[in-house]
Amino acid sequence: MVRITLPDGSQREFQGPVSVSEVANSIGTGLGRAALAGRVGTPGTESRLVDTSYVIDQDSHLAIITAKEAPPQAAIKFAPQLMQLQRVILMRKEVHAQLGLALLL
Predict the structure, then answer these.
(1) Among 42, 61, 90, 97, which residue's beta carbon has the most beta carbons within 10 A?
(2) pLDDT of res. 97
(3) Are 9 and 47 in contact (CB under 8 A)?
(4) Bridge partner residues of 3 (DSSP)
(5) Do 98 and 57 fall into the same domain?
């Protein structure tokens, strides 16, 4: 059983390992969609910034980071992934546009 302690002192218990995203969604679907990262720390260790896919497998403290409270280093950390995602989306649109033109010709 994994116990997650949130910043307000409330705790959530999960049967096994759980991702930051799953914890956010268990609190609320809006928070789940808004979550960008998490700050995870175990008792006796310093907390660290992780992405939402990070899996927590032991009792930990968790603060869920959204755009409202994202520190500047979060933007820097995730910028390469976001840029890659934008390139993929643009390429996909371009391919769809080219396929559409090919079908019209």
Answers:
(1) 61
(2) 47
(3) no
(4) 13
(5) no
**Burial of 37: CB neighbours in 10 Å, binned 0-12, 13-18, 19+:** buried
Number of neighbours of residue 24 by Cβ within 10 angstroms: 23
Are residue 59 and residue 77 in the same domain, yes or no? Answer: no
48 and 87 in a single domain? The answer is: no
Q: Which domain holds residue 3?
A: 1-69
For 3, the token pair is: 């116990």
Same domain, 58 and 76: no
36 CA to centre of own chain: 4
Q: How far apart are CA 55 and CA 51, in angstroms?
A: 9
Give tens-digit pLDDT for 35-47. 888 889 987 888 8
